[in-house]
Amino acid sequence: MQLAREELEQAYKQMKTIREFEEHLHREIMTGSIPGFTHLYAGQEAVAVGVCENLTEADFITSTHRGHGHCIAKGCDVIGMMKELYGKADGLCKGKGGSMHVADMDVGMLGANGIVGGGPPLATGAALAAKLDGKGSVAVSFGGDGSCNQGPVFESMNIAAILNLPSIFVYENNRYSEHTHCDYVIASESIASRVEGFGIHTVKANGFDFFEVHEVMKELITKAREGNGPCAVEFETTRFYGHFEGDPQNYRAKDELKDDRENNDCITIFKDKVTEAGLLSDDDINKLDEEVNSLIEESVDQAKKSPLPNPEDVTTDVYVSY
Amino acid sequence: MTEKTYREALTDALFLEMRRDENVFVMGEDVVGGTGSPHAEPGFVGGVFGVTGGLHEEFGLDRCIDMPISEAGIAGTAAGAALAGKRPVAEIMFCDFMGLCLDQLMNQAAKFRYMFGGKATCPMVLRTTYGAGMNAASQHSQSLHPLVTAIPGLKVAMPSTPADAKGLLSTAIRDDDPVIFFEHKTLYTISGDVPDGEYLVPFGKARMVSEGDDCTLVATGRMISFCENAAQALADDGITCDIIDPRTTSPLDEDAILDSVEKTGRLVVVDETPPRCSFASDIAALAAGEVFSSLKAPIKQITGPHSPVPFAKELESEFVPSPTKIRDAVAEVVNFK
Q: Do B118 and A139 touch (CB under 8 A)?
C-alpha cells in the first residue's frame, strides 16, 4: 500500500458514496417515487473507484446500464445525478436521460448506456481521438460479463488492437448476465482468455479488493498512456441486488447474497485493511461516513424539491440546430 | 466553376475540409486501400467508389484510416471520436450494411445530445452509397434513407448533382449533429459545374430544379433526372411541372413543397424505395394534411414495389420508377376529373 492518506480517504469516500447512493435508491424505488428502470451497482464499488482513481478529467470512460458507480467514480455531480434519477428539470441530463443515460462530458464521462455492449465501440472512438491528439489520454470501457458476448465489443477490441489505441477494456464479471449464469453464456474458459485472442494484454484480478484493482489499473493505464496499445482486465465481483430493481433473484444460491455481504463486501474489506494497518482510524472512517451521509441526504432533499420538467421541453436538445 | 464528376466533387469537399480543420479525418473499409500489405504501397483503392482517393498522400495514414470489415466498430468508433471532439467522416460501403451498425447510429449517435441533456455533440458524418441500377441485387441496392430519416437526432443528406455533392458534404462535415450522407452509386460518373473553393449548401433548403404550373414533382437523388426526363416529354403536351429536390430529407424543407403544391394543386412523389412507411408516403401525408384544400387530384406515389431489389436487368428495371411511369402519373393527375 503506497497510497497517501488523502488518497485513501478519497477512495473510501467515493466507494461509500456509491454504496449509500444505491442503498437510498433501493429503499426509495419501493415507494414508487423514482420512475423507470434502475440497475444497482452496490457491491462492485472497488472496481469503479479503483479504476477511476487512476484517471483524470482528460481521460474518457464509457459505462453500462449499471452505471451509477462509474459516474460517481469519474466525478459526476452526485446531487445532479440524484435529481436526474428523480426525473427533475435541473438533473444532470435535465430529466431526459434517467438512470441508464447519466453522462457528463465535462469530466470525460461519455455516458451510461442502455444497450449492453454499447460502450466499448464509443470508448474505442474516444481512444482514437486521444491517440490523434497525442496528449496521453486514455479511454476505459466498463462492461459486464454480459457485454463480452456482443459482436460490436469483439469488433472494438480488434480495432483497438490493430490501431494500437490507448484503450482499456474493463470487464466486471458479477457472475450473471441479467439472470443467466456466466459459465453457461461464455463459451471460453474465461472472459480474459477470450480477450487474449485479440492479441490484447489481459489480466484477471480480484475486484473485491480496492488495492488490487488500483494497483493493477495503475500499471495498465500507465502503459496505455505511454502508447503501448490496448489492455484488458477481468475483475471478479458481485452485485448485491438484482439485475434490475424488483428482480426476485431466484437464480442465485440460497445463501449467496448473505455470503457476499459478509465475506465479499469491498467496503468492509477496505475498512479492515486500512484500520488494521493503522492507516485510517475508526474515527476517521466514521467522519467520512458522516460526510457521505450528509451529501446523500442533501442530494435527496434537493432532488425532491427540484422542479419537474416542462412538457414543452420534449423537443429541445434533439439537435444542436435544425 | 469547374466541370467535375459527382465523385470528384465529393473528393474536392474532403480535401478542402481536411485542410481547413485538422479534427476532420476519414475512416472506413479500403478508404486508403492496401494499408499493411507487404505487396503494395497504401493508396491503390481510395474507397471502392474512389471518393477518398489521394487523401492519404496529403494527410497521412493517421487521418485516412483503413478499417477492418466491422461496420458496428466503424460507426461506433466514429461516434465515440465525435463525442470526444473529433469530426470523423466514416464510410459504410453500401447503406445495406447499416444493418450491421444500426445500434451505433440509432441508439447512440442520434440520442447522445438528447439523453445527456444538451451537453454532448456528436459531429460525425457517415457516408454511404445507395440505390439500384447496377444489378447489385438485394443486399447492395437498397435506398434506406427513410429508415434513418425516421430517427430524431440524425440528419440525412442525399445530393443529386455534383455541385450539391460538394456543397452538402462540406456542410455535413461542419455540422455539429450526426449526418448520414447518401451517395447514389449511379451518379458518381455524372458531370456538372461545381463552384471552386469553399462551397456550402445549407441543410433544409430545397433546390427548385424546374418550375411549372400543372404539377409538383418531389424526388431525391437519381430520381431527379428521371423527373426531368419525364417533364421534358410532358412539356411537349403543354404540361409543366415544378420539380423539387429537398436535398436533405432531415431537416425537410416543408415550405418549398407546400408552397408548390398550393400553386399547382397536384403532387407526384417519386422515390426508389418500397412504398410502405416511405419518403413518398411521408411527403404525401404532409401535403394531404397541410394543403388539402388546394389539391385538384389525388396524390400519386411512384415507388418500387413491396419487394427486395432484384438482380436481373429486366426485374431491376421493373423495380425502379421509370421516366415513363412518372410521366404517366403526372398525366393522370393533370387529367383527373
A: no
Domain extent at residue A118? 5-308
Q: Looking at this protein, which amino acid is placed at residue A103?
A: A
Q: Is A313 within the bounds of a domain?
A: no
CATH number of the domain that A222 lies in? 3.40.50.970
- Based on the residue annotation, tell me whether B39 is a catalytic residue of this protein: no
Mean pLDDT of chain B: 97
| A185, A269, B35, B65, B104 from B29: Cα distances, Å | 31, 49, 11, 8, 17
Q: Is residue A315 part of a domain?
A: no
Partner residue facing B72 (CB), from A101, A103, A151: A151
How much is the pTM?
0.96
H/E element, A19: helix A5-29
The Cα B144–Cα A171 span in angstroms is 35
The ipTM (two decimal places) reads 0.94
CA B59 to CA B64: how far, in whole Å? Answer: 7
Cα A267 to Cα B74: distance, rounded to the nearest angstrom? 39
The reply to whether A236 falls in a domain is yes
Nearest-CA distance B291 → chain A (Å): 23
Chain segment B49-101, per-residue pLDDT in tens: 999 999 999 999 999 999 999 999 999 999 999 999 999 999 999 999 999 99
Cα-based angle B74, B30, B40 (whole degrees, multiple of 5): 140
Q: Are A160 and A229 in contact (CB under 8 A)?
A: yes
A118:B108 CB<8 A: yes
Distance from CA of A121 to the nearest CA of B (A): 5
Rounded CA-CA distance B92/A33 in Å is: 44
Domains of chain B: 2-194 (3.40.50.970), 207-334 (3.40.50.920)
pLDDT digits (tens, 9 = 90+) for B198-225: 999 999 999 999 999 999 999 999 999 9
| Residue count (chain A) | 322
Contact B177 A316 (CB under 8 A): no
User: Rounded distance, CA B11 to CA B49, Å?
Assistant: 11
